[in-house]
């Protein structure tokens, strides 16, 4: 994975995107968290390769995605050709077999230490979407797909503006909530490739992101998160918010009870968002327990 300066990469992404489309993008993931917590500190960086750009609202996603992809491709951005479904599809290609829009900046070496690419996603069409869903994105080169996941609406909820860059990024606490909701238990499925030399359960990677965000926020009071989370859940899932609130902490509790799973989470933190300040198991356990007490338990209680 590449070690990137959040402010530098975010500025480059902003400059490449059509100005008229910037209000339809929310940057999520490690880059967004890194920018929020240490975007003004040149000595700190995040290790990541993918810059996730969520397009919203849903009704504007296809138009914005077409404009963004067209401008980047015409400016010399190169497609990332790895994995399945590399070739653009046609009208007859099922949406779940279309390639995603993943693009490297002009002149970058995909194998280089500082390489990165953007990926275009979208928020779900409705609260009823479950799992992964795809939206067709026709381009001159053929048909591509915009993927979404059930809780991306939470991730993109009430985003922050990135200084004077004119682009928005996800709030760290909303990314934490989305990951908590995505993993109400530790699932056995592992990531498709090694993470810094180690095969990791996806649940441990994503719940490790929750702990990394909590640790970076540890100087703050977690209690306001509970109210913000409740508001986001009621807005995005008005008929399910109570059930979702009650299960928000189950995966994290399971992680904290398993030393092997927690160690996998620690590995992802030390080689990802917390690369410049690697945590210990005890540190992650303590911040996880504090997050449960100050934010998750009040959220659960409010749903009773």
Contiguous runs where pLDDT drops below 50 for at least 5 residues:
none
Give a quick account of the main beta sheet: strands, pairing sense, barrel closure. Answer: 7 strands, mixed
Overall pLDDT confidence: 93
User: What's the helix count?
Assistant: 11
What kind of oligomer do you see? single chain
Helix content class: 40-55%
Order of helices and strands: EHEHEEHEEEEEHEEHHHHHHH
Counted beta strands: 11
Apparent shape: globular
CATH architecture of the largest domain: 2-Layer Sandwich
CATH fold type of the largest domain: Beta Polymerase, domain 2
Strand content: 5-15%
Topology:
Layout lengths: L2 E2 L1 H11 L8 E4 L1 H9 L7 E2 L2 E6 L2 H17 L3 E2 L22 E3 L12 E6 L9 E8 L2 E8 L2 H4 L4 E2 L6 E2 L2 H11 L19 H15 L6 H14 L4 H6 L3 H8 L1 H12 L10 H22 L2
Parallel strand pairs: 2-11, 4-7
Antiparallel strand pairs: 1-3, 2-4, 5-6, 6-7, 8-9, 10-11
Helix pairs in contact: 1-2, 5-6, 6-10, 6-11, 7-11
């Amino acid at each position: 994975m590449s070690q990137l300066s959040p402010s530098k990469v975010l500025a480059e992404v902003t400059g490449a995107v059509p100005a008229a489309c910037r209000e339809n993008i929310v940057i999520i993931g490690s880059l967004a968290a890194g920018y929020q917590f240490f975007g003004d500190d040149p000595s700190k960086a995040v290790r990541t390769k993918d810059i996730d750009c969520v397009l919203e609202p849903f009704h504007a996603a296809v138009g914005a995605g077409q404009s963004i992809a067209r401008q980047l491709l015409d400016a010399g951005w190169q497609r990332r050709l790895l994995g399945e479904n590399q070739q653009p599809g046609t009208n007859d290609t099922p949406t779940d077999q279309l390639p995603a829009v993943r693009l490297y900046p002009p002149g970058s070496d995909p194998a280089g230490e500082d390489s990165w690419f953007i990926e275009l996603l979208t928020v779900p069409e409705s609260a009823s979407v479950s799992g992964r869903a795809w939206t067709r994105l026709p381009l001159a080169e053929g048909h591509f797909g915009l993927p979404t996941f059930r809780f991306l609406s939470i991730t993109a909820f009430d985003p922050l503006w990135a200084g004077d860059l004119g682009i928005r990024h996800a709030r760290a606490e909303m990314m934490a909530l989305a990951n908590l909701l995505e993993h109400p238990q530790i699932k056995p499925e592992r990531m498709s490739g090694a993470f810094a030399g180690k095969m990791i359960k996806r649940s441990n990677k994503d719940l490790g992101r929750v702990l990394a965000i909590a640790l970076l926020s540890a100087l703050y009071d977690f209690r306001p998160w509970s109210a913000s989370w409740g508001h986001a859940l009621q807005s995005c899932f008005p008929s399910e918010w109570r059930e979702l609130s009650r299960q928000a902490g189950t995966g994290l509790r399971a992680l904290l009870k398993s030393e092997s799973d927690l160690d996998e989470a620690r590995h992802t933190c030390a080689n990802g968002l917390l690369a410049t300040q690697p945590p210990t198991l005890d540190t992650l356990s303590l911040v996880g327990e504090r997050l449960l007490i100050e934010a998750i338990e009040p959220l659960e209680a409010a749903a009773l």
